[in-house]
């Protein structure tokens, strides 16, 4: 979970290229055809530093679509599906690990004034 | 690179001369700081205006003895995020009273036009032609300024004191009746 | 509070217009991300893990009820129904879409709210004591000075591209509630030996990778000179601060490298040449600014209404809250009420739109329409009549902001951490939640007394962990979350940086570690009223370290 902003390219397993969509900041993954998807499953996997570097270069150029592209680890789960490769990527894919602050109030509350 | 001066795109009458090249006669030239400081008196006495390109990591105080004779000082923005030349510009104008052309060079983009003018620059070597073309429109973006500055526009506090803007706030509607001046 | 005039509102509106244009140019590809990023940061727009984050300034922590309602509206319509109050008296929204930003900002601008300079290498939100204007130990309202400075540094042509961010705090009370010494520049309004009121100027504080406490470079600065002196400090920093290394770019590094004396000399030389110029503040200007601050029309009220004493006797929970969350006001018959945004197992500093609207209504009815936000991530109703306290409490309790833990162990200060922030190495919120659960019993929290826990999810220290009585810093080791623990930090007049207690502790053991530390305190303290931080000062960290690592 070291900020990927300081990453050296060093691949020790399968990786994808991820970024945030320009218009709304949503987490997206680079597809093999150069488009971006919000589904990790559809992301292009790189298995070597060379391949990752190429994908990253193309992604970085595509800053009209997505920004802050970097290399993120994935792991192939037992069922053959791709999963995020560390806690940071898990949080990016699935959202915060915490629920929004507990409160006694629901959508409307009758506050005695 | 388009040059903006007095609000318009103009021809640059200055020629930038390399450190090793001969200086042409009677033509307005800009030389580097090193070249200038090597023979400042000769340069300011030459037939033709002389300007110096001053780096952003040297104190402008070094130029002080010759400011009365320099037609132009060019300051540098290697990257627009490197804002050292704004301080240099203000010192040249306000502390040392430099009255010649003060030019911004380097990574000069439209979103800094107003800052540049207000810091005392009066000519801008603009990086993108589209930005230069938009100059007149860009400098109209803001009509209110909080600080006193080189372009002579009245800062907000002065406008207030002359009664041009009274405090009132409709976003405290309702609360007004609960408030009173101290 | 300060009343905006049409000049202030026009500036904000023009800024929104400029940003709308900048976003449009970015979306059209006319601006690269490299060119756009500093521009969006200057409007408080970060790119975070899940979305853009919008940080809105709450100048010196003061909000009107109308402004709070607008924050609720933005939370509902542009975000996920809540906002997060930060350690710098700002509010953050974590789920903003870039394309919706101009509209959100236009709505905020309509009530005088904005994100100007809440990020970027400029002067950030100027913070102060959340009890400013109402605290009995204050000599003057520091917010007048904060506003004078705020205006001066807003869209300042010379200081919008400095080496790094610049944080200013102003204080005016006997007790420092504004954490002055952890700021790049701090001003402490005080009276000198001759009875004159002026500023002590301190520079070079800051946490992060190399934490420093600010040093005094000018023991007494006249009010007239405050803007010109700050100008001289900023100019010195702008010219000589490092730009080669982001970790060495703050003014604290410059002050440390030059030495405070040499730095002060440099500033003095610059200042001498500008002090009598356009920035000299004449009394008319100061008076005009002061006149824009409106104060409540306080009624002459009973300082000890009998009904209040009765209510305390009748309801133990109300009594506990009174003892904890209600502080003395400078006006007889009134009180300062703190709203805890640290409910049991909640996210510290979070507030829902529903809560915000209810608080705004309460402010209108019971606090002259004014609310404050503190750097401890709690809110304040600054002008509550004592006779209204029972009613106010019931209302606050109904919306979950009356937990009687202000200043206690479960009043945790925490950054958003890895659940939200792209800079983070570890999560902070669930750590805070678990600690909060362990200390849920009010009697236990009361028994422990004043105890500040600060949690940061990375070295940037937005949770101010260095100055926590217990500081917790999340780090990453081999893809696992670990936490370094420090003890004995303080953010007040006696400011201190905490001492590392030992090797980092894994995520699952942090709450246990805090319990061990707290148990050690209970054993070690000389008297029940010896505060945790004073026990640490007296004994050093050794006894705590022994107990914590004994099991390992």
> How many H/I helical runs of chain C?
18
Compressed to H and E, one letter per element, the order of chain A equals EEEHEEH
Classify the helix fraction of chain C into a percent range.
25-40%
Judged by helices, strands and strand pairing, the structural class of chain C is: alpha+beta
Strand content of chain C: 15-25%
- How many strands, which pairing sense, and closed or not: the largest β-sheet of chain C? 6 strands, mixed
Summarize the structure.
The complex is a heterotrimer of chains A (113), B (182) and C (552). By secondary structure, chain A is an alpha+beta fold. Chain A has two helices and five strands, in the order βββαββα.
List the SSEs and their pairings:
The complex is a heterotrimer of chains A (113), B (182) and C (552).
Chain A: E1 15-21, E2 27-30, E3 36-37, H1 49-61, E4 66-76, E5 82-84, H2 87-94
Antiparallel strand pairs in A: 1-2, 1-4, 2-3, 4-5
Chain B: E1 3-5, E2 8-10, E3 14-16, E4 28-32, H1 33-38, H2 40-45, E5 50-54, E6 72-77, H3 84-95, E7 101-106, H4 113-119, E8 123-125, H5 129-133, H6 135-138, H7 156-161, E9 179-181
Parallel strand pairs in B: 3-4, 4-5, 5-6, 6-7, 7-8
Antiparallel strand pairs in B: 1-2, 1-8
Chain C: H1 6-27, H2 33-41, E1 45-47, E2 52-57, E3 62-64, H3 65-78, E4 82-85, E5 90-96, H4 101-109, E6 127-128, H5 143-153, E7 168-171, E8 185-191, E9 197-203, E10 215-222, H6 226-240, H7 251-258, H8 260-274, H9 283-291, E11 294-296, H10 306-314, H11 316-325, E12 326-328, E13 334-339, E14 350-352, H12 353-366, E15 370-373, E16 379-385, H13 389-398, E17 413-414, H14 429-438, H15 442-448, E18 453-456, E19 470-477, E20 480-487, E21 499-500, E22 505-506, H16 510-524, H17 532-539, H18 542-550
Helix pairs in contact in C: 1-2, 1-4, 3-4, 3-12, 6-8, 7-8, 10-11, 14-16, 16-17, 16-18
Written description of the protein model:
The complex is a heterotrimer of chains A (113), B (182) and C (552). By secondary structure, chain A is α+β, with helices and mostly antiparallel strands. Chain A has helices spanning 49-61, 87-94, and strands at 15-21, 27-30, 36-37, 66-76, 82-84. Chain A has a five-stranded antiparallel β-sheet. In chain A, strand 4 (66-76) and strand 5 (82-84) form a beta hairpin. The radius of gyration of chain A is 18 Å and the shape is globular. Chain B is 25% helix and 20% strand. Chain B has helices spanning 33-38, 40-45, 84-95, 113-119, 129-133, 135-138, 156-161, and strands at 3-5, 8-10, 14-16, 28-32, 50-54, 72-77, 101-106, 123-125, 179-181. Chain B has an eight-stranded mixed β-sheet with strand order 2-1-8-7-6-5-4-3. In chain B, strand 7, helix 4 (113-119) and strand 8 form a beta-alpha-beta unit. In chain C, strands 17, 18, 19, 20, 21 and 22 form a six-stranded mixed β-sheet that branches. In chain C, strand 1 (45-47) and strand 2 form a beta hairpin. In chain C, helix 7 (251-258) crosses helix 8. Chains in contact: A-C, B-C. The interface between B and C is large, with 52 and 63 residues. Strand 9 of chain B pairs antiparallel with strand 11 of chain C.
